[in-house]
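Is this the right way to post structure tokens for a design question? Let me know if I should format differently. Anyway, here goes:
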């Protein structure tokens, strides 16, 4: 259940942002001193704060950690000071953090152990912690086809009919979710699970996977070739493996920060959001401090206009996006049918300061005058009027919070500047930067820090958002209906 908690505003202590606020210069008989540096304007100033928060909290701002909680405090205090009604929307999510690399060793007949090479073994997120030594039992691997074909190993309970309780299951990736395979294995009495890659194109090497729920046994992934060797050995004789995952796993509370203007009544609602959490591996300044900073800055700039209450805007800062879009899903799941229908458009910003950027504007294919199509056009117009190229894309980007909304039939619009994908030659000619290099070379890494930002593109996105929100909230009649004004 989601609990709404009204926020008490308290003065933050020890943070650069409170120190760097503009100083007033009243009075005449003051000693001459060097001028104060002007307070930084724009979205970037919020990134300095988020970086300071991460630096003071083990280098990250991930959901379930103090770095996230401080980030939520900063954002909520800024919004409350600007006059918004701010609340926290609480939820629980499966927390998982590895403390040391996983271990997989194969016991040889002479009793010696052969450890797998470090790069070959990766823990699946939400694996159980544990240290087990047991026989290895292969589960419907179907390794004979050449070239390797798609696998459905472990997808059915029947795949485990010959499985020996107390063994470690060797399963092959493919067809159904990791969660289904692992739950079937646990039901059959597996004490650990090794998932080998599928062997089809792009699915051969070591891989990082995520289980959607915490499971009670250790689960690791290995490359296809390694799985073939283990599978062949397990099928011809008896082999024993030592499997260990050292992790903290369990449910933790987290929260979305929601800020709204008082007015708007029962009329249409525009929701603008960005995920506020980082991954555990780094401070998340581009992913997604940048989206957070742009949405926060837009909210602060628009506060006086929105306070007049003509239109209703909800600014949302989502928790636990990196854990599977959890905060935004909880939000849409908790809406009544009527509230859901009131949302005219959801605008999502995720990674809008990428150092080797592209400019994506994503939105509905429709060309009507509905708020979503209007928002997309305004965003595009803002860039074009400043001579800035964009790439327009239709549909929703799955893998960010807009998909939580589009799954409920709410139109979405998004601004993105690219993650770990490679910039093409065409994109380099449109946007500059380097072809053949990732949009963000620090995506989900410790180096996603304050220097991993293109300040220009960040401010361009923030400015486009401000203009668009003005347009969708001030048109005569406003966004009265989803599909037509
Ligand atoms: N910010 C990223 C993904 C992203 C990239 C969104 C470019 C928009 C534009 C997001 O935080 C992320 O890492 N998503 C995951 C999936 C998520 C459900 C954990 C992904 O895309 O792999
Ligand atoms: Zn992100």
């Amino acid at each position: 259940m989601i609990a709404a908690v009204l926020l008490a505003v308290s003065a933050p202590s020890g943070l650069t942002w409170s120190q760097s606020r503009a100083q007033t210069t009243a009075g005449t008989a003051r000693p001459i001193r060097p001028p104060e540096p002007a307070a930084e304007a724009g979205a970037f100033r919020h990134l300095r704060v988020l970086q300071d928060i991460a630096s003071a909290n083990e280098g990250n701002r991930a959901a379930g950690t103090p770095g996230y909680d401080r980030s939520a405090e900063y954002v909520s205090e800024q919004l409350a000071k600007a006059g918004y009604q701010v609340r926290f929307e609480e939820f629980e999510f499966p927390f998982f953090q590895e403390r040391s690399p996983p271990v997989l060793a194969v016991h040889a007949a002479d009793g010696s152990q052969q450890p797998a090479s470090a790069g070959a073994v990766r823990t699946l997120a939400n694996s159980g912690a544990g240290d087990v030594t047991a026989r290895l039992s292969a589960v419907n691997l179907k390794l004979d086809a050449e070239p390797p074909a798609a696998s459905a190993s472990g997808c059915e309970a029947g795949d485990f009919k010959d499985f020996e309780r107390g063994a470690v299951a060797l399963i092959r990736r493919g067809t159904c979710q990791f969660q289904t395979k692992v739950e079937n294995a646990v039901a059959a009495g597996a004490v650990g699970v090794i998932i080998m890659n599928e062997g089809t194109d792009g699915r051969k090497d070591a891989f990082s996977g995520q289980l959607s729920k915490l499971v009670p046994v250790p689960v690791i992934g290995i490359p296809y070739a390694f799985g073939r060797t283990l599978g062949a050995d397990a099928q011809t004789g008896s082999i024993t493996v030592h499997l260990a995952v050292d992790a903290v796993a369990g449910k933790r509370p987290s929260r979305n920060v929601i800020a709204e203007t008082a007015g708007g009544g029962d009329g249409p609602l525009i929701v603008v959001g960005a995920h506020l959490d980082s991954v555990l591996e780094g401070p998340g300044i581009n992913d997604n401090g940048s989206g957070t900073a742009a949405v926060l800055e837009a909210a602060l700039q628009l506060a006086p206009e929105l306070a007049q209450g003509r239109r209703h805007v909800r600014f949302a800062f989502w928790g636990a996006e990196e854990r599977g879009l959890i905060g935004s899903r909880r939000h849409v799941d908790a809406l009544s049918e009527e509230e859901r229908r009131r949302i005219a458009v959801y605008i999502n910003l995720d990674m809008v300061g990428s150092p080797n950027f592209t400019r994506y504007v994503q939105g509905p294919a429709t060309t009507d005058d509905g708020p979503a199509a209007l928002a997309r056009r305004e965003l595009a117009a803002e860039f074009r009027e400043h001579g800035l190229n964009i790439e327009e894309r239709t549909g929703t980007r799955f893998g960010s919070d807009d998909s939580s909304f589009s799954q409920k039939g709410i139109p979405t619009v998004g601004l993105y500047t690219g993650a770990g994908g490679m910039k093409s030659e065409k994109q380099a000619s449109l946007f500059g930067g380097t072809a053949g290099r990732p949009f963000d070379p620090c995506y989900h890494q410790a180096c996603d820090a304050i220097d991993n930002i293109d300040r220009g593109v960040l401010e361009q996105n923030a400015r486009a958002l401000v203009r668009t929100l003005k347009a969708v909230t001030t048109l005569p009649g406003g966004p009265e209906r989803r599909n037509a004004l």
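Format looks fine. Someone answered above. Worth noting: The chain has two domains: 21-84+261-474, 98-250. The pocket of zinc ion (ligand 2) is lined by residues 275, 287-288, 321, 350-351 (CB under 6 Å).
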